[in-house]
Amino acid sequence: MPEAVDRKPAEAGPSAEGTPLSTLPPRPAVVPADAYFTWPNVITFARLCAVPGAVWLVLNHRLDLAFWVFVAAGVSDAIDGWLARIRHSRSTLGAILDPVADKALLVSIYVTLASIGVLPDWLAILVVFRDLLIVGGVLVLYVLGQPPRIQPIFVSKLNTALQITLAAGALLLAGYGMGDSVVIDVFIWLVAASTFASGAAYVTQAARGRA
């Protein structure tokens, strides 16, 4: 007759590092990559919904209020990124929605500021054309079955920082009547140069990736 097996629950033993398993903190829950309703995604979607409001404010010459909407959008961008990291809630939707919301706001601000004469129209055209060139090129390569290997580059990050600074500065100075055309003019040419350079760099990078 087989011996009786002792089915007494095993006590929690030490881990490999010598710490009792029962005292280890619980591992943070990881949000599935296909999750939609996460706090970072909700904040990002709210930022995207703020774009029509910002456009309306600029077109109605309420640049003072548009400036604070623009600042709030920047703060929300930092918050949703921080939440995604600490709550382990990065998702596929968030990876797509976040840059779309950022670009939608930035491009809309440039186009509307140009339409009321605060920024030159040729600069708005250059900014829009650069983004269309990159996005269109990526889509064409995907359709051709040759997805490009595009990596973020320094000149592109510099261009984004300069674009944000110019947009915020133009809203602030024009909205509160603190016109300083010299500073704005300097940033206009810096944004123009970096926009052209980053667009050319991405085209070159994509061409080398296909070679």
From TrEMBL:
Q: Name one Pfam family in it.
A: CDP-OH_P_transf
Gene Ontology cellular-component annotations? membrane
Q: Which reaction does it catalyse?
A: a CDP-1,2-diacyl-sn-glycerol + sn-glycerol 3-phosphate = a 1,2-diacyl-sn-glycero-3-phospho-(1'-sn-glycero-3'-phosphate) + CMP + H(+)
Gene Ontology MF terms in the entry: CDP-diacylglycerol-glycerol-3-phosphate 3-phosphatidyltransferase activity
This protein's major location comes to membrane
Q: Which InterPro entries match?
A: CDP-alcohol_PTase-I, CDP-OH_P_trans, CDP-OH_PTrfase_TM_dom, CDP_ALCOHOL_P_TRANSF_CS, Phosphatidylglycerol_P_synth
Q: Tell me its EC number(s), please.
A: 2.7.8.5
* UniProt family annotation: Belongs to the CDP-alcohol phosphatidyltransferase class-I family.
Q: Which organism is it from?
A: Falsiroseomonas stagni DSM 19981
Q: Which residues cross the membrane?
A: 65-83, 122-144, 156-176, 182-203
Pathway in which the depicted protein is active: Phospholipid metabolism; phosphatidylglycerol biosynthesis; phosphatidylglycerol from CDP-diacylglycerol: step 1/2
Location(s) in or outside the cell: Membrane
UniProt keyword Transmembrane present: yes
Keyword Lipoprotein on this protein? Answer: no
- Recorded protein name is CDP-diacylglycerol--glycerol-3-phosphate 3-phosphatidyltransferase
Q: Coiled-coil stretches, from where to where?
A: none
Which GO biological process annotations does it have? glycerophospholipid biosynthetic process
Q: Which UniProt keywords apply?
A: Lipid biosynthesis, Lipid metabolism, Membrane, Phospholipid biosynthesis, Phospholipid metabolism, Transferase, Transmembrane, Transmembrane helix
Q: Where is this region: Disordered?
A: 1-25
Its record classes its membrane topology as: Multi-pass membrane protein
- What spans are recorded as compositionally biased (Basic and acidic residues)? 1-10
